[in-house]
Amino acid sequence: MDSITQIALGTSVAGIVGIKPFGRKALIAGAVLGTLPDLDVLLSYQTAIQDFTFHRGFSHSLLVLSALSVAIYYLALLVKPTLRTDNKALFLVIFLPLITHPLLDAFTTYGTQLLWPINIPPVSWSSIFIIDPLYTLPLLIGGVGLWVKPRAIRWQRVNAIMLGISCLYLVQSQAQRMQIKMQLQQDPIAQSGEIFISPTPFNTLLWRVISYQDNKYYVGFTHAFNQQPLSWQPFDNGRNLLNGFNSTELQRLEWFSGGFLQFTEQEGRLIATDLRVGLTPYYPFAFSLAKDEQQWQPILSEKMAQPEIDWAKLLELYQM
Question: How many folded domains does the chain comprise?
Fold first, then answer.
């Protein structure tokens, strides 16, 4: 999720457990710790695909963040021994903002390596867009109110209620996704390929569905209460361009994306695009993998420039 949302969530959960013993200091700690895992974006790896797939790795691991919580807790006690009088609240003010960050990220389509360094595919529950005002707004209301009046019982209750509303929003997004999966059980195109379901930008009302097959993929749009068959748009996935090509970078990208990739050739370069995030033909994560020297030769991957979106053409293409 975006940084504002993670700060708001960290502030809210820290306020629940820490506002009484620590006042506004708990809110500050929650805001800082709530955004701390995303500082891994400052790290630069050797290639663009490594930057892409190592994000939300070690810094988003529940195992690493649990250990970090314990370390910060004992460091805080070492620096200020008087905190022992509220040691349980202290630990929760540290632990909850850190641990809720990757859990929230797992609800998006990007993929979060919750159990790093265990080598399992990233978790993507894929039921909320990376920016969703309806999720964030209640958290901001509770957090701002609590900051203005940290000792007011009413605002402590409002903060708890607003956090509950945001949690219910996540629950309903998963319920909608499950309903759409049930719809697709009767769809022949959906059943003939691997399915990926994700909300469209900034909402959980309209959903995008990909049916990924051997040489093509289909894109359709639906909603949880749709009773009509989906209207599918077919696209070439370009896997025939691989012609036996493989590399460690391609394997890493296949693993991270679950195989939902499109391949194209541009100026003698092999380009791989992650289809999970974006709308055809506008995807933010596309990478050059190889160059053409009679056959594909692997290169250090580079991220392709993002295309400018023609919204009129996009609406016409999908008849939205």
Answer: 2
